[in-house]
Amino acid sequence: MTRIIAGELGGRRISVPTKGTRPTTDRVREAVFSRLDHAGDLHGARVLDLFAGSGALAFEALSRGASAATLVEAAAPAVRVIQANIADLRLKGRATSVKEKALPFLGRTEGTWDLALLDPPYDIARDDLAAVLKALAPRLSPEATVVLEWSTRAGEAPWPSGIEAVASKAYGETTVHYGERVVDLDGPADGSVDA
């Protein structure tokens, strides 16, 4: 079990998958959401939680004022936990669970988001993460914020064209990278690169 730190659902406990995920620590979640709160990135935001695990990041965002969240997770046991948490927290209608891998989801969706939260497995290949981030860029609203939690040993985030690095902060084995959607008025608006 873990708990939602603050907001309308503050103190509520949520279930976590018994294996196969790495829940974000309370310390890191508090730091991330304090920054997002301070920047005004949460109020009314449409949130995308990729590699959602238990859904803790999306639920924290909803608790602190986000309007809606889409939680994308490929592992069936984790999806069942997410769905149970949505029901327990009475978030049906504000939180949507999708059982799918991140890259295929981004390839087929037509949604756009104001805040994207990514907590991929630490052993994800750099090229695979880069492909997800490249597919994510055109699905973001202008000036959307991207938060990537990744292994400190992995180095800098592989931000694509269309997402600009803003900051990063290490918490032991975890580094949180922040990016912002930027639109190049001279280039393609879909985040692609001219050949």
From TrEMBL:
It is an enzyme of class 2 (transferase). Keywords: Methyltransferase, Transferase. It comes from Demequina zhanjiangensis. This is 16S rRNA (Guanine(966)-N(2))-methyltransferase RsmD. The keyword Plastid does not apply. Gene3D superfamilies: Vaccinia Virus protein VP39 (3.40.50.150). Its EC number is 2.1.1.171. Pfam families: Cons_hypoth95. InterPro entries: RNA_MeTrfase_RsmD (IPR004398), SAM-dependent_MTases_sf (IPR029063). Coiled coil: none annotated. PANTHER family: METHYLTRANSFERASE. One of its GO terms (molecular function) is 16S rRNA (guanine(966)-N(2))-methyltransferase activity.
